[in-house]
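Long-time lurker, first post. I've been practising inverse folding by hand and with some scripts of my own, and I keep getting stuck on stretches where the structure tokens seem ambiguous. Below is the full token string for one chain I'm working on. Before anyone asks, I'm not after the true native sequence, just a reasonable design that respects the backbone. If someone could post their per-position residues I'd love to compare against what I wrote down in my notebook.
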């Protein structure tokens, strides 16, 4: 029956899925064909089936013949779940959609918040008549699904800004994120009492938003009396602009200074350089801080690199803890892929995980995107995940990645620049003419691939991590002291970014 599929698909999610599949189909099919064949169809989800009601047999057959694989593929891409597709002729096809909407109104947000707070799971399940009803079950007392999601509904999302997908349970801790994770957990367990503010910074797609959300969800579950507010720096700015425009700054201040106990601001770098926003944020910060209410911020760069950040804010950010999140190493990337595969019930062979993790090193968002493409393709063509499939499907990404940045590319460039062989860079030879290029290559790998020291050592013929640390330090020092070396590195960096 459909319960397992439905486990964390609340009615709003089901509804959103229906809307999204319709939207996606609109973009994949020409307007003319869409109007002719798909517009008359009514999509709805019934347990583990996508129901398509069409007004006549002709349209049914046309969709069956022409659009079934597309619909199946897109449904899987959107939901990562297997839906049966049931297409039938129904005279009042138009009513089906209406009925789906009505029943979603029955979904009680309040019941769900309570359930969430008590660690219960709220699932919309089909009743005997096939219509949806809300059931609250305590079958999963931790409140998290097997992939770590919390069933957070639209209403919780609206009042707190939190996304149920990003929990501590679904976060894979690796070398680059260990520190941030520990700090985030400490803050979530003792809000306002450990690090205040906590600022997490790092490159895109590395899990900053995920950790910020996880803090909010954990506090919501363990301290339901605390009011959690999560917004982005951009939303904060826009709300302020509107407040000024509509003369509602009093309400704005009340909301942020009195109406919340935990303030989570994602991408706070956005407010840098915006005078009035920084001013407002400064006072909000002080009010919250003085009453020991928790503030957590994320940013794509460290406060010292936020050129337009007001000094008084920069100094306040330093009152708490600043933690940087780094690119995960290959082992962590593999662990993330495994977790992802497990959560959607797909078998992921070791060599496939290894290849993907080696090829996609930019960030976790790219890695997840690639995995979604791969699994959707395997599902559609009913084939197993294999390295051949990875190569075939991800050719674009892999090409892009390997020409962009990789150990091979950095080593090849450095070797060509210094007229040595790549093999020499990986050898144990200690002549200066080889040792120095090797050290420069190691330095560039650290800087651009954000690889761990042991990982770099591995790619240079199995050198010890202390050798790599020594090399990186030596070159960092050399850049300041040796103009010729500095010039070589600048040239290499230019070629790397070409
Ligand atoms: P950022 O805010 O740093 O740009 P996100 O938090 O949006 O990055 O993360 C991008 C994607 O990668 C999200 O889907 C997130 O769930 C996933 N992700 C990032 N880090 C991890 C991790 N350590 N474990 C599991 N998933 C992760
Ligand atoms: Mg983010």
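-- Answer (accepted) --
I ran through it position by position. Result:
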């Amino acid at each position: 029956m459909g319960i397992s599929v439905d486990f964390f698909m609340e009615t709003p999610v089901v509804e959103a899925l229906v809307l999204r599949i319709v939207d996606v189909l609109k973009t994949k099919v020409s307007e003319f064909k869409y109007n002719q064949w798909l517009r008359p169809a009514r999509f709805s989800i019934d347990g583990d089936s996508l129901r398509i009601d069409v007004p006549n047999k002709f349209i049914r057959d046309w969709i069956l013949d022409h659009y079934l694989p597309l619909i199946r593929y897109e449904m899987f891409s959107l939901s990562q779940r297997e839906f049966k597709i049931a297409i039938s002729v129904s005279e009042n096809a138009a009513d089906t959609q209406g009925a789906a909407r009505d029943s979603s109104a029955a979904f009680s947000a309040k019941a769900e918040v309570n359930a969430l707070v008590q660690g219960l799971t709220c699932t919309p399940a089909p009743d005997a008549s096939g219509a949806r009803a809300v059931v609250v079950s305590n079958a999963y007392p931790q409140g998290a699904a097997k992939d770590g999601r919390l069933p957070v509904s639209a209403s919780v999302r609206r009042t707190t800004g939190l996304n149920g997908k990003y929990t501590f349970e679904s976060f894979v801790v690796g070398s680059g994120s260990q520190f941030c994770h520990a700090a985030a957990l400490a803050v979530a367990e003792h809000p306002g009492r450990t690090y205040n503010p906590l600022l997490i910074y790092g490159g895109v797609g590395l899990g900053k938003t995920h950790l910020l959300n996880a803090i909010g969800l954990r506090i919501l579950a363990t301290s339901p009396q605390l009011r959690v507010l999560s917004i982005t720096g951009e939303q904060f700015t826009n709300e302020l602009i509107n407040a000024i425009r509509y003369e509602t700054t009093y309400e704005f201040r009340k909301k942020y200074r009195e109406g919340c106990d935990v303030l989570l601001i994602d991408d706070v770098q956005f407010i840098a350089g915006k005078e009035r926003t920084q001013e407002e944020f400064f006072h909000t910060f002080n009010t919250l801080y003085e009453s020991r209410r928790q503030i957590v911020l994320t940013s794509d760069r460290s406060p010292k690199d936020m050129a337009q950040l007001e000094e008084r804010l920069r100094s306040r950010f330093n009152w708490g803890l600043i933690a940087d999140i780094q690119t995960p190493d290959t082992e962590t990337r593999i662990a993330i892929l495994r977790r992802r595969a497990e959560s959607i019930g797909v078998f992921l062979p070791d060599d496939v995980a290894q290849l993907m993790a080696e090829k996609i090193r930019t960030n976790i968002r790219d890695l997840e995107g690639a995995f979604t493409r791969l699994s959707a393709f395997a599902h559609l063509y009913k084939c197993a995940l294999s390295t051949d499939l990875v190569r075939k499907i991800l050719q674009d990404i892999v090409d892009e990645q390997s020409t962009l940045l990789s150990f091979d590319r950095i080593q090849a460039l450095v070797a060509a620049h210094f007229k040595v062989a790549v093999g020499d860079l990986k050898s144990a030879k200690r002549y200066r003419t080889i040792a120095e290029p090797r050290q420069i290559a190691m330095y560039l790998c650290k800087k651009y691939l954000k690889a761990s020291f042991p990982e770099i050592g591995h790619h240079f013929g199995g050198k010890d991590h202390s050798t790599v640390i020594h090399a990186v330090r030596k070159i960092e020092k050399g850049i300041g002291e040796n103009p010729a070396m500095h010039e070589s590195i600048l040239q290499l960096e230019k070629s790397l970014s070409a």
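A couple of notes from the structure itself: Residues 1-8, 94-143 have pLDDT under 50 and may be disordered. Residues 166, 170-172, 177, 204-210, 336, 364-365, 368 surround adenosine-5'-diphosphate (ligand 1) (CB under 6 Å). Happy to go over any region you disagree with.
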